[in-house]
Design a protein that fits this description.
heterodimer; A: 288 residues; mainly alpha; B: 268 residues; alpha/beta; 6-stranded mixed β-sheet; 3-stranded antiparallel β-sheet; 9 strands
Chain lengths: 288, 268
């Protein structure tokens, strides 16, 4: 496992807040700095593909993934991504092969994974106590293994976005047109669904099931208000997501705040959205 | 029959094509061909399966039978440019016309801007469809006519062997339709592609198409417009009023064609 001590030391130097001098906060911040650009980039496409409900279903599968860990007596940090990946790819396969509407298919998966998780957890009272972690997230307990997985996912996602960003925009606009014009729509859709599922599960660690969709949607929505082009939307989303993640973590650790870090991150992102909506409204009024 | 014999002189060959949705045959044993270099129009009443036929050719709906799309030189897949009937997309998407043009060609992500090679190529094609002034505009802010021209530019960027248009004049006013009609004629001559169009505008089809497929779930007639679009055939396919378009009355004049591009010729 690579030694990331130099990264944590660097964080403590560039952010000389008291709260940033402890290792678990440095790890949490590094995890968020890896996660936020991923949610920003995927969020742009989640908005284009109207896949907010998809990410909701995958995030709730984290609960079922944890239940799987109980059944197989293994670490939930392995079963959650695997189960999330299976749910994401399963939804995509059903969407592509069925005449049913997307939201119906996602709704069925959504209900099934929740029911499965509840059924398993209801048999084990000790597991039910950990439910709060899934609901609110807990980035402060991120492990070295989680960080290494995040680094690997970050590299894969950057490669995917660099290779496929333009084609993903094409597919999001009109999949039939893209496919006719020689874009491999199915391959991109499956790759996107798989990667999005993994990003969503890692985001569950950070902000919890209740707020994971917000981490994808809110920075991208703010970016959409501010951007004039697709390239601009990407950069605005990135800025809003990273600023919210870093700002949220630091604010949540202040004595006067003492709030849940996940909720604080989303609140700051929401502030970005409110300001961006105001700017967009003002610009639209000025444009004849 | 061998492939070459089947497709001789044709870029698209349809043999016994049937599309069935929910137990209903939308297309029923359709056999027809699209000659290379032609302007082939598919005409028929609402619900005749015109768009379904295009989608079958584009391999977007499941069908039985055989559809062959060939090209010159053989050995590579035919390039198809497609202009949909209604391009439905989220109009609030921040995407400029130039980004729209290069997104299917350029690999470098749009967040790093456009590469000069693709930008210049896109500009040339936008110029060809008289849309060069639109390159910085947001896609969602385009009018119906502007959108159709940009979609045509996108399709032409494929350097298509076959250009497929699904009712391209839908939503266009007379002037827009006129510009579109002229543009397509000129571009087909210049680029040498085959044009396959679904159209409701029988006057334009009669005057400009070189090959017509009359469709009403089955092929009712196929051939040169003047021999196919007879009053009798049209009345049989469309109903009573189609006798108004009398193609045989205009073998040597444009006066009976109500297509906007022809109407201008008449006034000139």
């Amino acid at each position: 496992m690579p030694d990331l001590t130099f990264v944590y030391d660097f964080i403590s130097v560039i952010l000389p807040f008291d709260c940033m001098q402890v290792r678990f906060m440095q790890k949490a911040l590094f995890g968020l700095i890896l996660l936020a650009p991923m949610t920003a980039a995927m969020g742009v496409q989640v908005i284009n593909f109207r896949m907010a409900f998809f990410s909701d279903a995958v995030s709730h599968s984290a609960f079922a993934g944890a239940a799987m860990a109980l059944i197989f007596s293994t670490n939930p940090h392995w079963t959650m991504p695997v189960f999330g990946l299976m749910v994401g790819l399963g939804i995509m396969a059903m969407q592509r092969g069925s005449a049913l509407s997307s939201d119906t298919i996602i709704g069925v998966f959504f209900s099934a994974v929740i029911a499965f998780g509840l059924a398993v957890v209801s048999r084990d009272r000790s597991a039910a106590r950990n439910l709060q972690n899934f609901l609110y997230g807990d980035i402060l307990t991120i492990t070295d293994m989680d960080i290494n997985c995040l680094v690997a996912l970050f590299v894969i996602l950057i490669l995917f976005q660099t290779w496929g960003y333009n084609r993903m925009i094409y597919i999001g606009l009109n999949a039939t047109l893209a496919e006719t014009h020689q874009v491999r729509v199915a391959a991109y859709q499956y790759a996107f669904a798989g990667l999005l599922s993994l990003v969503v599960i890692f985001a569950v660690y950070a902000v919890g099931v209740l707020l994971v969709t917000a981490m994808l949607i809110v920075p991208a929505a703010a970016a959409r208000n501010l951007a004039r082009s697709s390239g601009g939307m990407f950069w605005w989303a990135l800025l809003a997501a990273v600023f919210s993640a870093v700002g949220g973590l630091i604010v949540s650790a202040q004595e006067w705040a003492r709030t849940a870090s996940g909720a604080t991150i989303i609140l700051i992102a929401s502030l970005w959205f409110v300001v961006s909506a105001g700017i967009s409204h003002f610009q639209n009024r000025r444009t004849p | 029959m061998s492939l070459s014999a089947l497709t001789k002189g044709a870029i698209v060959h349809l043999q016994d094509v049937t599309v069935n949705f929910g137990g209903v045959n939308i297309l029923d044993h359709v056999s027809a061909s699209v000659p290379k270099g032609s302007y082939t129009a598919i005409v028929g009443p609402n619900g005749a399966g015109k768009t379904t036929l295009l989608l079958a050719i584009l391999q977007k709906v499941p069908y039985t039978g055989r559809i062959l799309v060939t090209c010159e030189p053989p050995g590579r897949p035919a390039r198809i440019g497609y202009v949909p009937q209604r391009f439905q997309f989220d109009r609030g998407t921040p995407l400029t016309v130039m980004e729209f043009m290069v997104m299917g060609r350029q690999r470098l992500p749009l967040w790093f801007g456009h590469q000069r090679f693709y930008r210049e190529k896109a500009r040339d094609i936008l110029r060809a469809v008289k849309a060069e002034a639109l390159e910085s505009r947001r896609l969602g802010a385009l009018s119906g006519g502007e959108m159709q021209r940009v979609l045509l530019a996108l399709a032409l960027q494929q350097e298509p062997d076959l250009l497929v248009l699904d009712e391209p004049s839908t939503g266009l006013d007379l002037q827009g339709e006129h510009i579109y009609c002229e543009l397509l004629d000129g571009l087909r001559t210049q680029h040498g592609f085959t044009q396959l169009t679904v159209s409701h505008d029988l006057a334009t089809v009669t005057h400009h198409a070189t090959h017509v497929i009359c469709l009403n779930r089955r092929v009712a007639a196929e051939g040169a417009p003047r021999s196919v679009l007879t009053s009798e055939a049209l009345t049989a396919i469309f109903g009573l009023h189609m006798g108004l378009v009398d193609s045989r009355a205009m073998p040597d004049g444009k006066s009976n064609c109500t297509a906007p591009c022809c109407a201008r010729d008449e006034h000139a």
